[in-house]
Structures are given as structure tokens and as C-alpha cells.
């Protein structure tokens, strides 16, 4: 038999209440807010588990208490997100120095709110008809809560997270390119000279690709042009924390340059993989080089305005070295009179 009291309580847990104005005190710093988020998330996870156990059989008083606590915790999370940006993350007044971190927090908290709404609907169905879909929905709510542990603490952290997420396009394009190549026995040219790439460069690249690279993959990664661009995209997260983010140098401009770079990489691979003519390939590779240089400039500009340090000096030197090698390799490639198969080998 349905528990009407429980149904009334669950029915009030709609999207409006899950995103309503909280009572969180203003003036909190990011560490303060993260402490509140961690506490609210931990309590919500316990209450969601307890609520799932209280609907079979339905216990009105328990459902009422736990639903109220879950709604209050979600409102606290929404409040922390709004206070982080100094305003609502859903309008245009968020300060640029926290625009990206606020957006990431808002996405995660909003995703949790949507899962909670579906969870409450599933609980109603359980009480009404005995449908057990609420069990799987409980797991989805847990996942959304656990994702809050990975919230970025700074604007730079948020930028690194977004950059790595967008790196999936570069990774997929690289896999597509590898599949289009025949295995080669001879050693490829090393664009970094006799020293080759450093272990850190390969560590970043391997992390992007999701596993250790074979000797053949390392050789191809060091090949001119495409490999150079892939390495740059994989190593940028190492440089981001070394630079500054200001109103004049916002995180959005780096992210935009990175998105353009990833799309250009995908276009270049497409030009190679679909057998387009030499002119189209040159155009695609030229556009990729332009977008990559833009990324280098965005990162270097932010590092230069920070106090000098050994790490920043090394980063600027690496970016300079990368740009010089790209110029050298691109010039040699454009001046060559290779046929299509030879061009594919050179890439």
C-alpha cells in the first residue's frame, strides 16, 4: 500500500528546491567553501543511503526527515558555488578571475541536482508500484556526490581539468592517424636532436594516451609536425600553474586557444587520413601550426609576468625550443617535393 505521507514529501523535491537560494554566510574563501562542500557531500551520501533503505517498507517520518536533510545539503552546495564566484554562476556577473572554477563547480552541483530529482522520482515509483529502479538511481547519486571530491581548488586547477578533458579529441585523432600508417622498420628523425624528448615529456604524453607507449609509438610521437603538436598539447597542463590569471589574461583565452588547437589537430588528421590532395594537407597543417603557436604565446605571456624562478625559466625555454623546432621542421617540409607517400612518411 502506498504511503501518502512519503509521496507528499518526495513530491516537493523538485528542481526549484534543488537549486534554490541557500543560507550560506557570504565572505568565505575557497578553502572554507571546499570544507563546506566536503561536509555537505559526506552527509548527503549517508542520508541518500538511509533514505533508500527507508522506502521498503515506506516509513513516513524517516522519509520526511531524510528528504529535508538532502534538500538542505543540496542548497548548501548551490550556495557554495554562488559564493565562490561572488554572484550566481548562471548569469554574466561572475568575476573573470573565478569564471572557470565557478563554471566547473556549477556543472558538478547542477549534475548532482538532476540526479537527485530523478532519484526522488524513482522513490515515488517504488512507493506507488514497487518499482526497484531507485536502486540503480541511488548508485548514480553516489557517483555524482563522489565527483565533488575532484572539484578544482583554483582557477588554474579548473583550467587544467578542462584542458585534459578537451585532450580527448587530440587523443582520438592521434589513434586515428596511427591506424592509417603502416608499420615502419627504420628509425624516424628525432625533432629534438640527439637528446630526444625528456622523460617528463613522455610521461605527460603517456598519461594523455592512457598507458605506456611502445618503442614504435615513441618514435612516431617524435616524428615531425603531428607528433610535435601532440606533445605540446600533452605538456601544457605542466605549464599552466606556473603562469598568472588576471583580468587582462583570463583563463578563457587559454581554453579557447586550446579548443581551436584540438580542432585543428583533428582537421589535420582528417586531411591525412582521407587522402586529400597536397594543397589541402599543407593548408590543414599550416592552420594547426598557427593554432599551436597561439597556445605557446598564451602560456608564455602568463609565465613572463610572474616572478622569475627556475621552473618558469625551464618552461619558457621548453616553449621556445618547441617553437623553433616547429618553424624548422615546417619550413623543411614545405620546401620538399615529396610525393604523397613520402609526405605521409615525413609526417
- Percentage of residues in strands: under 5%
Q: Helix/strand-derived class?
A: mainly alpha
The tally of domains stands at 2
Q: Provide the CATH superfamily of the largest domain.
A: I/LWEQ domain
Summarize the amount of helix as a percent range. Answer: over 70%
Spell the H/E element sequence: HHHHHHHHHHHHHH
Instruction: Classify the fold: give the CATH topology of the largest domain.
Output: I/LWEQ domain
End-to-end gap? 70 Å
Any idea what the radius of gyration is?
A: 26 Å
CATH class of the largest domain: Mainly Alpha
**Main beta-sheet strand count, sense and barrel state:** none
Number of strands: 0
Number of helices: 14
The gross shape turns out to be elongated
What's the pLDDT, averaged over the residues?
77
Uncertain runs are: 1-6, 13-28, 87-95, 182-198, 218-222, 337-341
CATH architecture heading of the largest domain? Up-down Bundle
